[in-house]
């Protein structure tokens, strides 16, 4: 197991110094799901939700969150992302919305936290907009799917959901 990098020699939390790292193309993809009552999903898919297009709002919230990850997660670097994509796909079995986010940049540190934050905030936004009709929604399975670039190279999750 590698040494945790957010601790200094005395064991105190610190922001990692990435100044000596090369600028490389970096990309991360994350996913998650929000489970809901079939009636809630139908309301979203049929465009009958009283708050309008909740998927569009959640997509924008995910993109905005990725850009502000450094304000939300302690010790994260402020990054100049070159691309953020958030896809929300309604699925009937199980009744849910699958969320996938990808983040890219040319930089000295990875974008895994930004992709994970985008998924999480998109799911929380869906919950917030739909809670009046379905308080039993469940946000689940938020995980990193893939990361490319940097010293550690390419990593991809296995299909079974465990760490590869």
Automatic annotation (TrEMBL):
N-terminal signal peptide: none
Subunit structure as annotated in this protein's UniProt entry: Homohexamer; trimer of dimers.
Keywords tagged on the record: Lyase, Molybdenum cofactor biosynthesis
UniProt-listed Pfam families: MoaC
Gene behind this protein: moaC
Name by which UniProt lists this protein: Cyclic pyranopterin monophosphate synthase
Pathway(s) per entry: Cofactor biosynthesis; molybdopterin biosynthesis
Family: Belongs to the MoaC family.
Function description: Catalyzes the conversion of (8S)-3',8-cyclo-7,8-dihydroguanosine 5'-triphosphate to cyclic pyranopterin monophosphate (cPMP).
Source organism: Marinobacter lacisalsi
Binding site for substrate: 75-77, 113-114
């Amino acid at each position: 197991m590698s040494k945790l990098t957010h601790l200094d020699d005395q064991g105190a939390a610190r922001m990692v110094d990435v100044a000596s790292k090369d600028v490389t193309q970096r990309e991360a993809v994350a996913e998650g799901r929000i489970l809901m009552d079939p009636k809630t999903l139908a309301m979203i898919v049929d465009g009958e939700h009283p708050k309008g297009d909740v998927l569009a709002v959640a997509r924008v919230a995910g993109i905005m969150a990725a850009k502000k990850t450094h304000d939300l997660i302690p010790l994260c670097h402020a990054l100049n992302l070159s691309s953020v994509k958030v896809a929300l796909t309604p699925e009937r079995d199980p009744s849910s919305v699958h969320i996938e986010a990808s983040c890219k940049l040319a930089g000295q540190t990875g974008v895994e936290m930004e992709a994970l934050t985008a998924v999480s905030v998109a799911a929380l936004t869906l919950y917030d907009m739909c809670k009046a009709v379905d308080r039993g929604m469940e946000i689940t399975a938020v995980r990193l799917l893939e990361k490319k670039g940097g010293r550690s190279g390419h990593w991809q999750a296995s299909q079974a959901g465990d760490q590869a």
